[in-house]
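Q: What structure does this chain adopt?
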Amino acid sequence: QVQLVESGGGLVQPGGSLRLSCAASGFAFSEYFMAWYRQAQGKERELVAQINPLGDEKYYADFVKGRFSISRTDDFDEVYLDMDSLRSEDSATYYCFLVGTNYWGRGTQVVVSS
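A:
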């Protein structure tokens, strides 16, 4: 059974940093693209970043490019999102996604506020 479990969300100050983790199980992790999406209150869910199976090709949305970094490790079947220079508009629930499927994590909430 496919499971994606996010963690690491919380309250951070503008300009601060946070690391989100997604623990994956129940599928061949090393064969799939993985992605992070986010959804703010009252807004559409949007793609933040994605990473290929080998972890050497990455995509970032323009609004996070240069501030966020996606990575993965086959050692633990985990994908990460390192977030720097956080802004209030980054506040959202962040979701881990198994690309090409309908499998999502349940999300972890990030609040950027002073």
